[in-house]
Amino acid sequence: MLRSMPAVVPALPPELPRDGNVLTEWIGQTPMRLFGWRIVGTPPALSKMVIVAGPHTSAWDVVIAFAGKLALRLDVSFMAKHTLFFWPLRPLLRGFGCVPIDRSGPHNVVDQMVEQFASREAFLLVLAPEGTRRHVDRWKSGFYHIARTAGVPIVPAAIDFENRWVRFGPPVQPTGDVEANVTELKRFIAEAHARHPELA
């Protein structure tokens, strides 16, 4: 049953990089309104950060996250294999905010993303820290090393399928204490109801 509650899209701080137009905003907001989704809060007023989104148990997580990106007109980036960047996919992927990652080159993924942060005035990188839709006991640590090496905060974004909201949490500055920092991020995301709770 469709919900009639409109999507709540808060105003963004001016420091956040923006993208899109009225049409892409409408494309993002329309399905959120139809299905009763809303966005709670906004990322902090910073031009660079790593956003960890979860819990990730379904392909629908990606759909909701992308609809939220369009609805907010938020300029965020995602990592994608460099082999996917061929014509005619290349302009489409870049338009979606995808950044090519070459896993066969001399520089690892962390180095490549740190270079992206260093070369841009604004860069918001979104990752799923579980790295898979299956249940995992530990998050992959790549996102943490990217943020710490680049000197940027990590912001949790929780996707709740029971309450139908996407909620941004407070930034966590990597201190080098991986366990403490990741526990704080996990605590925020664990409050959300996954689409498949048994996999969270």
Q: Give the radius of gyration.
A: 16 Å
Q: Using DSSP, what is the number of strands?
A: 7
The description of the largest β-sheet is: 5 strands, mixed
Structural class: alpha/beta
First-to-last CA distance:
25 Å
- Percent in strands: 15-25%
List keywords for this structure.
disordered N terminus; globular; two-stranded parallel ribbon; alpha/beta; 5-stranded mixed sheet
Question: What does this molecule look like?
Answer:
With 200 residues, the protein is an alpha/beta fold. It contains 6 helices and 7 strands; from the N terminus they run H-E-E-H-E-H-E-H-E-H-E-E-H. Strands 1-7-6-2-5 form a 5-stranded mixed β-sheet, with helices on both faces. Helix 4 runs parallel beside helix 5 (142-150). The two termini are 25 Å apart.
Topology of helices and strands:
Elements: H1 22-34, E1 38-40, E2 48-54, H2 60-72, E3 78-81, H3 89-95, E4 98-101, H4 109-119, E5 123-127, H5 142-150, E6 154-160, E7 165-168, H6 178-189
Parallel strand pairs: 1-7, 2-5, 2-6, 3-4
Antiparallel strand pairs: 6-7
Helix pairs in contact: 1-2, 4-5
Quick recap of the structure?
This protein has a 5-stranded mixed sheet with strand order 1-7-6-2-5, with helices on both faces. Strands 3-4 form a two-stranded parallel sheet. The protein contains 6 helices and 7 strands; from the N terminus they run H-E-E-H-E-H-E-H-E-H-E-E-H. It is of the alpha/beta class and 200 residues long.
